Amino acid sequence: MNFYESFRIALKALGANKGRTFLTMLGVIIGVMSVILLVSIGTGVRKEVTGQLEGFGTNLIYAIPGNFEEMLGGGGGAMAMPSRQFNNDDVEAVRARVSGSGLVSPMVDGSGRLTLRNNTMFGSVSGVDGNIDEVFDITLAEGRAFNNSEVLSASRVAVIGNTVKTQLFGNRDALGEEFQVNDQRFRVVGVLEEQGGGGMGGSLDTTVYMPFTAAQRLFGNQDISMIAVKADDPEEISLVQSRIRTALQPRLGSDGFSVFTQDQMLNVMGSIMGMLTTMLAGLASISLLVGGIGIMNIMLVSVSERTREIGIRKAIGARTYDIMSQFVIESVLLSVLGGLVGIALGALGSWTIASTTAIPSAVSLWSVGLAFGFSLAVGIFFGVYPAWKASKLDPIEALRYE
User: DSSP per residue over 131-169, as a string?
Assistant: First the structure.
């Protein structure tokens, strides 16, 4: 019996009990969909974080609480979580130490619900200093950046990204208008030029910048997420790094913080996000294994139900290979069809998440290949035993089976 005939019989057998076939495929569908969705979210977050860092410009140096030296060195060791956060005194210490060789901006990062009347969206919130346009390479399309007096008084003023302006204000002029961030009113003083980058995938268009003092009040603490320093001269980056370490060491100790350049920062974030994405893919793959066990159980039931059919086919000359290939093909068809449906649902779910929420999501080809390849492997692996069992049935005993 040739492959075409085995394939036709397998399709007929699966179509004979559509309800059971669908329920068997469901485990694979859910597994493949989960892999694609979770990897898509991980990939989207990675693109957004790295894209935002790249959009800040060059000559930037970052100081972050915690010891990330092993990660920076590529050793893959465990990261020491920060025991203490930066505060305003640390910012002033760095500012005094690098005076004349760089510009300093504290950063208070978070997210918020942005509301204007019936328009609501979720976006990034970044509290920075009054020299936002000097430290970071961003250009204002309208208005101005907030000034130092507004920072000192924690004024509720904001510079908004282009997408925030469009979604909340539409075609109206946003300057001087108020909107809400987590139910607190902020007045728009500036609008950024459109950055692009595919919506949430690495764009700064969905970000709201405000004085870091106002961000601290918004989030209810005095912590500083990060200290950014822009070196005046690219040749002095190493010198500025050394001065930052000297400023922070007395309070935090040598292991209480990390200082690195933008390229190093991108490597760190890429490594962290890559590990998280891999972990998410691994967790989702467990459901594919469960789906494979379901396929094996149903195929064993199918062998039991079709024992007489197997006996008749062997009695009229079907080889062991013919019987085995038929059941393997049925198992693979179940996993492949379930994988294709899961891919379609996963891609649709990823697009829906990216379009309707603030969660970045981007389908990657490797996640599709991984999910489909794993589902195919599951079908083959869990179909071999039932197929082998069917092929080893004695034809006389099989014909006697009731």
Answer: THHHHS---EEEE----HHHHHTT--EEEE-HHHHHHHH
pLDDT attached to residue 6:
65
pTM higher than 0.85, yes or no?
A: no
Q: Where are the alpha helices (DSSP H) in 253-364?
A: 262-305, 307-315, 320-356
Sequential DSSP letters for 228-277: EEEESSGGGHHHHHHHHHHHHHHHH-TTSEEEEEHHHHHHHHHHHHHHHH
Query: CA 95 to CA 393: how far, in whole Å?
Result: 82
Q: Are strands 226-231 and 178-181 parallel, antiparallel or unpaired?
A: unpaired
- Domain-by-domain residue ranges, the chain? 3-47+276-400, 84-254
Question: Which residue(s) pair with 230 in the sheet?
Answer: 60, 103
What are the tens digits of pLDDT across the range 306-360? Answer: 677 767 776 777 677 677 777 778 788 888 888 889 889 988 988 888 777 667 7
| DSSP per position, 44-113 | HHHHHHHHHHHHT-SSEEEEEESB-HHHHTT--PPPBPPSS-B-HHHHHHHHHHSTTTEEEEEEEEEEEE
CA atoms within 13 A on the CB side of 117: 5
